[in-house]
Design brief:
The complex is a heterodimer of chains A (about 140) and B (about 120).
Chain A lengths: L4 E8 L5 H12 L8 H23 L6 E10 L2 E9 L23 H8 L2 E5 L5 E8 L1
Antiparallel strand pairs in A: 1-2, 2-3, 3-5, 4-5
Helix pairs in contact in A: 1-2, 2-3
Chain B lengths: L1 E7 L2 E10 L4 H13 L4 E12 L1 H16 L3 E5 L3 H9 L8 E2 L2 H20 L1
Classes of the chains: A alpha+beta (about 140), B alpha/beta (about 120).
């Protein structure tokens, strides 16, 4: 079994860093052996992570200064990518957020819904000063 | 994000290239607002060269569609890359927004909508 590849980085929680996070995910996935739909999977994981980080900037930090600690890890058995994101912003109850009404087009409220749909697992654990998101997707 | 717009038969075609995300979705919102201010409510947005779109981009397109419909027109989408089309499917917005494979098909849709109106005026 190959050892896991992990990228760890701390970034200011700002919109302009979202592109860098997507680039890091793409760089991690370049180490993965080619597989059917890997490009689609990579795009989906990038978008899901982007939406989670967007939520942290807008809601956990309320556009105030803050940072993300991000770990991107490739797993080998089963082959998967796991992304852990830590923030120190405002906690909230993920289960209390209503799903968008899919029968009525809305102008907002789709971000975390999209992230959940694109991943196998989206977990959120809140604690004062230490919130943790876990994103997991098998290849 | 790069825009290119042109008019054909009272329909405004807007080609968008690049990313549409939270860092620049306000630019698209502004552009659609400009088009609306020119009394154009029949709008086609061609997304063939969009490389990435997040929920902010989705929101701006839905807002634009709603505004066009409020004024008796519509905003149609065409040439969606697979990942962009996927977001519309996931959110079921592909049922709310009319999506076409080509500009030609989208223009034809507007022409079809106008035909009963023209026939009614002539009768």
């Amino acid at each position: 079994m190959r050892p896991p590849d992990t990228i760890q980085i701390q970034l200011a929680a700002k919109y302009e860093n979202l592109a860098l996070i997507r680039t890091l995910i793409a760089a991690a996935l370049e180490k993965v052996e080619p597989a059917p739909d890997l490009n689609d999977l990579g795009y989906n994981v990038q978008l899901a992570t982007h939406e989670v980080c967007l939520n942290i900037i807008q809601h956990a930090y309320g556009h105030e200064n803050g940072c993300f600690n991000i770990e991107i890890e490739l797993k080998s058995n089963p082959r998967a990518i796991e992304i852990n994101i830590y923030d120190t912003g405002q906690s909230f109850d993920l289960d209390a957020i209503p799903a968008p009404n899919l029968d009525e087009p809305q102008s907002h409220g789709y971000g975390l819904f999209i992230a959940k749909q694109l991943l196998d697992t989206l977990e959120y654990h809140s604690a004062p000063g230490a919130n943790h998101w876990r994103l997991y997707k098998q290849f | 994000m790069i825009f290119h717009s042109r008019s054909i038969d009272n329909v405004t075609l807007l080609n968008v290239s690049g990313r549409i995300d939270v860092t620049n979705s306000s630019d698209l919102k502004h552009k659609l607002g400009q088009i609306a201010s020119q009394q154009s409510t029949q709008v086609i947005v061609n997304l063939s060269h969009v490389s990435f779109m997040d929920s902010s981009g989705l929101a701006v397109l839905i807002q634009g569609m709603k505004r066009c419909r409020e004024y008796g027109g519509d905003l149609l989408l065409c040439n969606l890359p697979k990942p962009v089309h996927m977001i519309f499917e996931l959110t079921r917005l592909d049922k709310a927004v009319q999506i076409f494979d080509s500009e030609h098909d989208a223009i034809a849709q507007f022409q079809t909508q106008r035909q009963p109106l023209i026939s009614g005026l002539n009768s």
